[in-house]
């Protein structure tokens, strides 16, 4: 008995996949300071007592500057022995003192006060200031603008590829957000100082990348 020939494979779907990126710039309105106090003494108890005194002065200075206690967070606390620089080979290393390190992260919600707060930290003998970072407190509205720009960028690229392939761009089949959105600070030191200590928050870039698949007709 003769069998009917197998049907030819259906033609594969014609697609174009593109990536679009959108970005917006914003003035940061929140700053984070990494600060700490390092104390050294002959005994661990003395080093701890001195460190506690300095940190209480730091907390008081921050409170006077308008920083809420909820915006001050301990990030590290360490007690280390100190050894003599050239220990004897017969008896081994000998402890000659102790150091205490207490680090805090300070969130500043009024960026205009940042320079003043730094001055007060130094005046309170905070002798370890590790860095300053800037962010945007409510980035979602800005990210939505970046998302719209990312989709528009993807549409522009897809139309270009469709024209190059002598095809017609069809409907969108899928959109996938691929990440991004993390604020990237751009510091511009030419900007004016805000207080006794010159601080320039610059601008922050928020970006979004999307992958978009279109049908080709």
List keywords for this structure.
single chain, 217 residues, alpha+beta, Translation Initiation Factor IF3, Alpha-Beta Plaits, 2 domains, 4-stranded antiparallel sheet, 3 helices, 26% helix, disordered N terminus
Task: Write up this protein.
- The protein has 217 residues and is of the alpha+beta class.
- The chain has two domains: 15-28 and 138-216, Translation Initiation Factor IF3 (2-Layer Sandwich); 30-85 and 92-135, Protein of unknown function (DUF541), domain 2 (Alpha-Beta Plaits, 2-Layer Sandwich).
- 26% of the residues lie in helices and 40% in strands.
- The protein contains three helices and eight strands.
- The strands form two sheets. Strands 1, 6, 7 and 8 form a four-stranded antiparallel beta sheet that branches. A four-stranded antiparallel beta sheet has the order 3-4-2-5.
- The longest helix has 25 residues, at 140-164.
- The chain is elongated.
- It starts with 14 loop residues before the first strand and ends with a strand.
């Amino acid at each position: 008995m003769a069998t009917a020939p197998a049907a030819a494979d259906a033609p594969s779907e014609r697609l174009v996949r593109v990536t679009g990126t959108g970005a917006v710039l914003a003035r940061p309105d929140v700053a984070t300071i990494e600060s700490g106090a390092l104390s050294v003494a002959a005994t661990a108890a003395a080093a701890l007592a001195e460190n506690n005194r300095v940190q209480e002065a730091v907390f008081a200075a921050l409170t006077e500057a308008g920083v809420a206690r909820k915006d001050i967070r301990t990030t590290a606390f360490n007690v280390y022995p100190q050894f003599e620089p050239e220990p004897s080979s017969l008896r081994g290393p000998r402890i000659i003192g102790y150091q205490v390190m207490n680090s805090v992260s300070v969130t500043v919600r009024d960026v205009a006060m940042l320079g003043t707060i730094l001055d007060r930290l130094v005046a309170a003998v905070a002798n370890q200031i590790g860095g300053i970072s800037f962010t945007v407190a409510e980035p979602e509205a800005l990210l939505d603008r970046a998302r719209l720009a990312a989709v528009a960028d993807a549409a522009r690229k897809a139309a270009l590829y469709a024209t190059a392939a002598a095809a017609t761009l069809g409907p969108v089949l899928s959109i996938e957000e691929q990440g991004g959105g993390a604020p990237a600070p751009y510091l511009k030191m030419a900007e004016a100082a805000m207080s006794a200590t010159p601080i320039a928050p610059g601008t922050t870039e928020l970006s979004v990348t999307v992958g978009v698949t279109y049908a080709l007709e």
